[in-house]
């Protein structure tokens, strides 16, 4: 049977991997990412490129925090990482439902799962 600590480590790294998967195209200016952020102009009064790079940077910071937390086990880093992850996923859901003409359901599902996982981790970290 897999130990709880191993499951938490795997969960942290999967969350970090997903966030890296989303951050890289934003930071590199992938065409799909650029087009997606053009759709957000109606909801966010920022230049779409500035908003895209800002979002990708926040996602990359979350990746770094999750990885450092995984190996250093600093509770404060875990709380910060999972709070930022939850906030980012809530923001992503808002953008999917209110800024896109039609939400991308795969992104919605991933955002919901990461939000639930963040809430779970924050609850555990609050007890420690």
Question: What do you see in this structure?
Answer:
- The chain has 5 helices and no strands.
- The protein has 128 residues and is an all-alpha fold.
- The longest helix has 25 residues, at 4-28.
- 25% of the residues are buried.
- The protein has helices at 4-28, 31-38, 48-72, 75-98, 105-127.
- The model has no long low-confidence stretch (mean pLDDT 91).
Give the key terms.
mainly alpha, about 130 residues, elongated
Mean pLDDT over all positions: 91
Give the distance, in angstroms, between the N- and C-terminal Cα atoms.
Answer: 24 Å
For the secondary structure, the number of strands is 0
Low-confidence stretches: none
By DSSP (H or I, 4+ residues per run), the number of helices equals 5
> What is the percent of helical residues?
over 70%
List the helices and strands and how they pair.
Layout: H1 4-28, H2 31-38, H3 48-72, H4 75-98, H5 105-127
TL;DR of this structure?
With 128 residues, the chain is an all-alpha fold.
């Amino acid at each position: 049977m897999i130990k709880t600590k191993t499951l938490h480590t795997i969960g942290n790294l999967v969350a970090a991997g997903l966030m890296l998967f989303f951050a890289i195209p934003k930071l590199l200016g992938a065409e799909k990412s650029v087009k997606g952020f053009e759709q957000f102009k109606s909801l966010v009064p920022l230049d779409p490129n500035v908003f895209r790079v800002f979002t990708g940077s926040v996602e990359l910071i979350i990746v770094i925090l999750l990885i450092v937390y995984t190996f250093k086990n600093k509770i404060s880093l875990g709380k910060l990482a999972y709070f930022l992850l939850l906030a980012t996923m809530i923001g992503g859901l808002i953008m999917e439902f209110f800024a896109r003409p039609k939400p991308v359901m795969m992104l919605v599902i991933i955002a919901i799962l990461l939000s639930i996982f963040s809430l779970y981790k924050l609850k555990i970290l609050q007890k420690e």
